[in-house]
Amino acid sequence: MRPRLDPHRLQALVIGASAGGIDALMHVLPALPADCPIPVVVVVHLPENQPSLLPEVFGPRVDLEVKEADEKEPVEPGTIYFAPPGYHLLIERDRTFSLSVEAPVHYSRPAIDILFETAAAAYGPTLAAMLLTGANEDGAAGLAHVARLGGTVLIQDPDEARIATMPLAGLRAVGDQATVLPLASLALMLRALRTKESR
User: Can you give the residue ranges of the CheB-type methylesterase domain (predicted)?
Assistant: First the structure.
């Protein structure tokens, strides 16, 4: 049976990617339906000293609002948020964003681990976390935290990842708690995230 995400149980999706991540996200984010009932929060490793332009890149390609997350902003459904360059992105327990300039994690700020760990604390078993291609181990500890708190763990198939280091680290961290799929199958899962009325 094909794995699926239950839109009536799920309350948030977090995604992490590094090297090759923009191309990977081009496969999965446009699959999200216009009536997606949850927020999607994304960390991509980018240079700190220049604008990311990710909202401008993805905005015309998806059916949801796309923006950079901002300090104290509520995490709203039906929106794709990108972490701004140079800041760790955290989700507080009251489900608002906060930004931090604490030290990089795995040489990265924003760090995937910090988003995943704080999102897991805020959403518990109603969170899904997806780890895509990348060249370091950021995200693996965060995935393990999501799994410990009962969330859903999704990993891009390392065999098709542009750089397999990150998905392989995620697999080592969570083992058989992860659902491992190619991008095309991950996109199909996201396409099914619709509000109850339209299903």
Answer: 7-173
